[in-house]
């Protein structure tokens, strides 16, 4: 089954997948060679999501999920984390003998209460004209027709801040609860529909990237890990899913597909550091 919406061209989706990087990056505007040609109608396949999680059947939330899945599936990345539990901040990784560090800033569980425009990003030459060979991205107004991708500011009323330090404006030690904000990339040529989709998700599980942020939009505005793919949804039965991962969802969430299970895992003692060796030429990862 396919749905027909106005999206970026297939070539652009593949190029934008370069945003999804291994281990995070401090760059706000990633390098990607993109096709600035006019958008066209693109049939985006309905992503098949494994596991107990049931994604929205239709509507803007479903459109958002399918489009993010299309971008994520085209991405080339090296991921050393094997599942959701390894993104909990008490889990530390040592990469190629480096100092131990977590794979995320933390995981936030809560309800999306607002989605606001952040910034658009365009590939422009020195004269401000579209240039597919331009490196990085130039910030432009959110509604600028030259924008190849956009970032929105999502505000979440946090129920569980599974972090060891403040993240997105939320202090895990605040017993009265808090709100947090994060930046989320949208790639559709119909950004209004994606904004509606985010608002419709409601309860979410957000894995924050360990390094990437959007300081030009707001101070300490963190990004979502894996280029936005690790924005998890909680379905009507309380089951957690990361629909952009498609068939990898079930193995990724593992035994922690409920909030109660994830919170319980976060409360366990600090696990041993996982030591990882990465061969960038071959993409080979060795653990242990």
Short key terms for the protein model shown above:
alpha+beta, disordered N terminus, 16% helix, 288 residues
What does this structure look like?
The strands form 3 sheets. Strands 5, 6, 7, 8, 9, 10, 11 and 12 form an 8-stranded antiparallel sheet that branches. Strands 4-3-13-14 form a 4-stranded mixed sheet, with no helix packed on it. The chain is α+β, with helices and mostly antiparallel strands. It has one domain (2-287). Helix 2 packs across helix 3 (191-201). Helices cover 16% and strands 32% of the residues. The termini are far apart. It is built from 5 helices and 14 strands. A hairpin with an 8-residue loop joins strand 9 and strand 10. It has helices spanning 10-16, 60-73, 191-201, 249-253, 259-266; strands spanning 2-7, 40-45, 92-95, 101-102, 106-122, 138-140, 149-162, 178-186, 203-213, 222-224, 231-234, 240-241, 274-279, 284-287.
The total of beta strands comes to 14
The parts where pLDDT drops under 50 for at least 5 residues are 1-27, 29-42
Number of domains: 1
**Terminal Cα span:** 42 Å
Mean pLDDT, to the nearest integer, reads 84
